[in-house]
Design a protein that fits this description.
Number of domains: 1
Helix content: 40-55%
Order of helices and strands: EHEHEHEHEHH
Largest sheet: 5 strands, parallel
Number of helices: 6
Distance between the termini: 50 Å
Amino acid sequence: MLRAVYPGSFDPVTYGHLDIIRRSARIADELVVGVLNNNAKMPLFSVEERVKMLKEVTDEFSNVKVVPFEGLLIDFAKQVEADFVVRGLRAITDFEYELQMSQTNHKLEPEVETMFLTTSIEYSYLSSTTVKEVAAFGGDISQFVPEAVAAALEQKMNKRRV
């Protein structure tokens, strides 16, 4: 069985993330979406909220499992017995960073490979940061995120405005 890990902060999950999940789920027998709990960052959504949203928007995929993690990605990949890590690339700047990370991970654990998927052209500009910025100014984010995520983001932004 071929198992892959697709890690990220997913704060919030976007259609770009879902594109990579959909495509990765066709390649791997099992795809573990690892939701990073990074104490050094101040995410808008808690790790529990992000896991819940991801489970909701990936429930159509029978081979996708959503799991929170913290610490090194390579340790998480070993813990879930992943054969490879999936990373999405939007631009050359992503590649430079992701190449360095994949080489470091390969040095730490040579048995775990990294596979890069280029983002589909319709999502190449999209990032969680952009989505949050548009939402913060009351913009329409329906073309960037699933309906459930848009509702959660709108609710979060309304609480911040009060």
